[in-house]
Amino acid sequence: MLKPLIEPFSVVIGGPTGIKPYKVKLVRRLSDLQDFFYNKKIVEEKLSKGENPTVYEVYEVPQKPVSRHLSLAATIIFPGKVGDEYYFTKGHFHEKEDASEVYIGLEGEGIILMQSRSGEVRHLKIEPNVAVYIPPGFAHRTINVGSSKLVFLAIYPSDAGHDYGSIVETGFAKLVLEREGRPVVVDNPTA
Ligand SMILES: [Fe+2]
């Protein structure tokens, strides 16, 4: 029989950090996402002018990376664009191929892009009162397509791991761009 390793606990959902209390805070600025936006020229121009806005923040309650635990994290993606491309998270595959994940929308409106290793792409809306299931084997990136911050809660196996490298190498096959004030999912010309 498994001996309980940690005490049960609860967190409060909502507020400026999305989750409280949290253990780890990550901040991703434009400079951290230089290799991820498709229009690298605009990124370089902004950075050369000293503009390095925060694109997103993650507030985590991680557990030990062992198979029986789940980790919690709230992500806040600020509203904004690089050219016509909306702010997004880097996106990752899970290092552990059989790890799935659930996202629950808390504030704002977004799109989750999902892409398998063989290039199949899916996209779903994320917004308050919507939960999205990300099956094993799909890389996932979240895009804030609204004019206010996008906040969502993620629940994932604590040993899932993050593989960002594959996304940098191949890029997502689709991009979410603004066209006439609305988000559209289009083919990535650089992928
Ligand atoms: Fe994930």
List the helices and strands and how they pair.
Layout: E1 12-13, E2 19-20, E3 24-29, H1 40-48, E4 54-61, E5 70-77, E6 81-82, E7 85-86, E8 101-107, E9 110-116, E10 121-126, E11 131-134, E12 138-144, E13 150-157, H2 165-170, E14 174-179, E15 182-187
Antiparallel strand pairs: 1-2, 3-4, 4-5, 5-13, 6-7, 8-11, 8-13, 9-10, 9-12, 14-15
List keywords for this structure.
binds fe (ii) ion, three-stranded antiparallel sheet, single chain, 191 residues, 15 strands, six-stranded antiparallel sheet
Written description of the protein model:
8% of the residues lie in helices and 42% in strands. The termini are far apart. The chain has one domain: Jelly Rolls (Sandwich), CATH 2.60.120.10. The protein has two helices and 15 strands. It has helices at residues 40-48, 165-170, and strands spanning 12-13, 19-20, 24-29, 54-61, 70-77, 81-82, 85-86, 101-107, 110-116, 121-126, 131-134, 138-144, 150-157, 174-179, 182-187. Fe (ii) ion is lined by residues 92, 94, 101, 140, 156, 160. Fe (ii) ion (FE2) binds next to loops.
